[in-house]
Amino acid sequence: MEWQIGKSKLITSSLSAVLLFAMWSAIADSFVSPEPRATISSQGGTIIFSPDGKTAITFSGSGFSRSGPIQVWDVGTGRERLALAQGWNEIETVDVSADSRLLGAHQKEGILKVWSLETGKELMSFKPVTFYGNWVNFRFCPDGKSLMFDDFRGNWRDTSRVTFREIKSGKDWATVETYFWWIEFADRGSKLVNWVSTDRKQFSSLRVLALDPDLHRVHSLINHAIVADGVAVSPDRRSFACFKHPDADDSPATVEVRDTDSGVLRCKLVYTDKKTHIQSLSFSPDGGLLVSHGGGGTQLSWKTRSTVWDISKVPARELASFSEAPVVSGDGKWLAVPTDDGADLYEVPSMKKVVLNRPGDNGPSGNFNGLKSYPRLEFSPDGKMLAVSGLWHQSQEPLAIQWIAKYILRMPSEEYGPIVRLWDVPTGNELASFKGSTEAKFSPDGRTLATAGSGGKIRLWDVPLRKPIGRVVTMALPFWGLSLLGLWLWKRWRSRTVAM
């Protein structure tokens, strides 16, 4: 009997100890920040991921002032694998092939080179013709065997051209008269979708071209006559949308969505805001939403507007309009709109709104021609997380709390400075904050989040975020021990009280 009572007390005590440790571990976990998987010591804050997410490319500088070397990093370990384009200045276009095996880069008014990302071996090098500092756009063909580039040879002022060049032989094998941004690959590179303007004012046709690199030719398959001021093609290239400005001021603009192969009209939309006009269209990554972007007014009082339509169902319908351009998640189920201090999150199609911000946060300061700067938003590839960068945070905590956080619990300080916040999209809860970071970017495979700050260091984080178990346990152990001591003292006092 005594043994059973002793066993029962042992089980009860052990269970209490386990529950107390779990409680203090959960509390400690809320105070412990995640740790990066690796840190890249880059000379600039710009990062490009390869399509497979396993390689990162960085440069010195950022924006239009990028220079060499181009550093190639292993995302898993953070180790530098290659350093290419040594001594290059003003690096323009940079692209990685779809199979993540090739890297291409062009130096302003200089050489365009292609390297192997596995060995660093130079595979192709040539100097595109440029006039007056033309920016040379290029991108790899989906099969990785050729690339397409802006060709300024000949009478480039009157006729725009893109040329296809084989990487192995370095020979040109086809040329299409069009602007670089008016052509898209389709069907894994076997076709091209191209919209054409004969007068450089309106688009007159959309055509589908067959691309045959083995036979070294491009020929026309389909040609749809259109009259449009702008064209966009869906990510799967099966649909295209075009808009036309009204002929009269009191008439609405129209938007049509058509099937790429047949040209059959899928839906027709009306844009009724007379104070602004459409300037461009874009599809959501899943192709279910269509977004118009535009504005109106004077140069110093320009008002922007973006309208979102759900075209996945019949009839298509307008969901909402925003003063700032929304960002759409990869699955098309969420919209995020930047605000002064964070973002507004909308669920599609209900348009239920969740505000994502924190006290003390402010967006970028300054404006250009009356257009205000806002935080930058990026969804994770699966649409479950949203990174908000470009924020500045000012501590709102009382001085006593700040002192405790700094000297007793050793929590991260809340000083004024740049910050990136990561939010859980389904719940609207904050997952993490990255102090000192100004930029955030997800890898295409969704397994890595890169954050960059002004110090030139780029930190790579596991997705989902992982917290160091050792720090959690170390923080929880003292409080757990004090709790056990307090529980033991309370039981002794109680037993003495009962005995008296």
The major β-sheet equals: 5 strands, antiparallel
Q: Name the structural class.
A: mainly beta
Q: Tell me the overall shape.
A: globular
- The name of the CATH superfamily of the domain at 326-466 reads YVTN repeat-like/Quinoprotein amine dehydrogenase
Residue fraction in strands: over 45%
Report a brief summary of the structure.
With 500 residues, the chain is mainly beta.
List keywords for this structure.
500 residues; 5-stranded antiparallel sheet; disordered N terminus; mainly beta; Methylamine Dehydrogenase, Chain H; 14% helix
Helix and strand arrangement:
Elements: H1 2-31, E1 38-41, E2 47-49, E3 55-60, E4 67-74, E5 80-84, E6 91-96, E7 102-107, E8 112-116, E9 122-126, E10 138-140, E11 146-151, E12 161-166, E13 172-177, E14 183-186, E15 191-196, E16 203-212, E17 217-228, E18 230-233, E19 239-244, E20 253-259, E21 265-271, E22 277-283, E23 289-298, E24 301-310, E25 317-322, E26 327-328, E27 334-339, E28 342-347, E29 352-357, E30 361-362, E31 367-368, E32 371-372, E33 376-379, E34 385-393, H2 399-407, E35 417-424, E36 430-435, E37 437-442, E38 448-453, E39 457-462, H3 469-499
Helix pairs in contact: 1-3
